[in-house]
Specification:
Layout (H helix, E strand, L loop, with lengths): L15 H10 L6 H10 L7 E4 L12 E4 L2 E7 L10 H4 L3 E4 L4 H7 L11 E4 L6 H10 L4 E5 L6 H10 L5 E4 L3 H7 L4 E7 L20 H21 E11 L8 H10 L2 E3 L16 E4 L1 H4 L4 E8 L32 E5 L3 E6 L6 H4 L5 E6 L2 E4 L1 H4 L11 E4 L1 H8 L4 E2 L4 E7 L2 E9 L2 E4 L15
Parallel strand pairs: 5-6, 5-8, 6-7, 8-9, 17-19
Antiparallel strand pairs: 1-3, 1-4, 2-3, 9-12, 10-12, 11-12, 13-14, 14-15, 15-16, 18-21, 19-20, 20-21
Helix pairs in contact: 7-8
Keywords: Methyltransferase, RNA-binding, S-adenosyl-L-methionine, Transferase
Protein name: Ribosomal RNA small subunit methyltransferase F
GO molecular function: methyltransferase activity
């Protein structure tokens, strides 16, 4: 979710606020009582939910949960006292924490369904911080490929961090304006996801947006920007491809009106998703809404469209000249079963599968890091330690119990009988590197990946 304007300290108690909300909704009609309930809900924060990895059972979680109705991999904590981000299971990558509303786009994408995204080439056009991109990577099941595009440089580190936590190597990050990306990669994607920058009205409850989000000027500005992004998204799609559009706002001008515009100007068909019919928009087919006063979340909008058989001609590309790795990886990793493709800079080395699209290196600025250089010394990357089911695997691993895992995740050194670089694992899930010497492992966990206040294991 992203928003266009900057939050300010404003009150929702002004008498004009109710009128602003009604005007912002446009043709979306709520009864007087429901409009009152909706307005009241905009000042109430809803707790985040957890989105499980496909292979993780809800029964294995260290806290009781109940399902999120619109997305089978989403669960709410039953207790208000539970803090999912402070659990070992979260540190080990068993789930992602996000607002329940953000799961609507994933439901429209049907990312929870087996094999729906398998072998697909996907573009997440506005990808940071990665709530949807990480779910897409997991749904690819080590097939296909994801290009996570994020034009705003300051948002890229969080995106890269979250993508690395999936353990996948089937992604790359680009930092291009959508229109420029569409010129380079016309017709190259099976699926394009647009979580569009918007007025962010759903963020009012989280105090991350101001009343100005309801102003006609802000809505018009956001809608104009969305049209430009969607124009690029249509050109990125191949014939028969799928476009999923979502926002974290309620204004019809930024939601249903955008879909109406696409249907009028392009060869798209709305996709009806049976499981989402309880949330269907009353204005436009193929559109779905969540409301804070109905659905226990901040609120969101999503739509899914299928492109017709006439589209832009796909770009063709020559094979890339092989990039030679500046460092020998077999000092840390086993010989891969299949060769990888490398790209990078003077200080970072990235590796993607050999069957990744040939255009990746032409647009990628970052990807699955395997090594980085500090001074003149190359070291294995944290992201490489987290790999799961890829061609790259570490030569040495060590398993730790709950207590030792918590000590490692705090950034402290831990006992290690092996010499050299070793991946620390908790119940088979990789946590990061230590470098063993004389019975102790020096902790190489990045600061951003440390947890200093983990809950006591139950």
């Amino acid at each position: 979710m992203s928003a266009d304007s900057t939050p300010q300290n404003e009150s929702f108690d002004d008498g004009s606020f109710h009128d602003l909300v009604g005007e912002a909704l446009g043709p979306i009609h709520l009864s007087a009582d429901e409009l009152d309930a909706f307005v009241t809900s905009l000042s109430r924060r809803h707790r985040n939910v957890v989105r499980l990895r496909r292979e993780v059972a809800a029964e294995s979680l260290p806290f009781p949960v109940v399902p999120v109705p619109w997305y089978p991999l989403g669960y709410r904590c039953e207790s208000d006292q539970t803090r999912p981000s402070k659990e070992l299971a979260f540190a080990a990558g068993d789930y992602y924490v996000q607002d329940a509303g953000s799961l609507l786009a994933l439901a429209a994408l049907q990312a929870d369904q087996p094999d729906v995204l398998k072998h697909q080439v996907v573009c997440d056009l506005c990808a940071a911080p990665g709530g949807k991109a990480t779910a897409i990577l997991e749904a690819l099941q080590n097939t296909g490929f994801l290009l996570a595009n994020e034009p705003i440089r300051s948002r890229v580190p969080a995106l890269l961090h979250n993508l690395a936590r999936t353990g996948s190597d089937r992604f790359a990050i680009s930092q291009m304006d959508p229109d420029d990306l569409a010129k380079k990669l016309t017709g190259c994607f099976d699926v394009v996801v647009v979580d569009a920058p918007c007025s962010g009205q759903a963020l009012l409850s989280r105090k991350r947006q101001s009343i100005s989000a309801l102003s006609p000027h802000q809505i018009e500005h956001s809608a104009s920007r969305q049209q430009r992004i969607l124009s690029a998204a249509t050109r990125l799609l191949r014939p028969g491809g799928k476009l999923v559009y979502s926002t974290c706002t309620f204004a019809a001008a930024e939601n249903e009106a955008q879909i109406d515009g696409l249907l009028a100007s392009h060869d798209f068909t709305p996709e009806t998703i049976p499981s989402l019919q309880p949330y269907a928009s009353t204005v436009t087919n193929g559109c779905y809404r969540l409301w804070p006063h109905r659905d226990e979340c901040a609120g969101s909008f999503a739509a899914s469209l299928i492109h017709g058989e006439t589209s832009w001609s796909a770009k063709t590309f020559r094979s890339n000249k092989p990039y030679k790795s500046p460092v020998s990886l077999n000092q840390w990793f086993n010989e891969p079963a299949a060769p990888d493709r490398y790209f990078g800079s003077d200080s970072s080395l990235y590796a993607i599968p050999s069957d990744a699209p040939v255009w990746v290196e032409r647009v990628a600025t970052q990807g699955p890091e395997v090594a980085h250089r500090t001074g003149k010394v190359w070291k294995p990357a944290h992201a490489a330690a987290l790999r799961r089911g890829t061609s790259l695997s570490s030569r040495q691993t060590m398993d730790v119990d709950d207590e030792m895992a918590a000590q490692y995740l705090s950034g402290a050194p831990i006992p290690c009988s092996d010499r050299g670089w070793t991946v620390v694992q908790y119940q088979g899930r990789p946590l990061g590197w230590v470098k063993g010497d004389r019975g102790m492992g020096k902790n190489h966990l990045p600061t951003a990946s440390r947890f200093t206040q983990l809950a006591t294991p139950r």
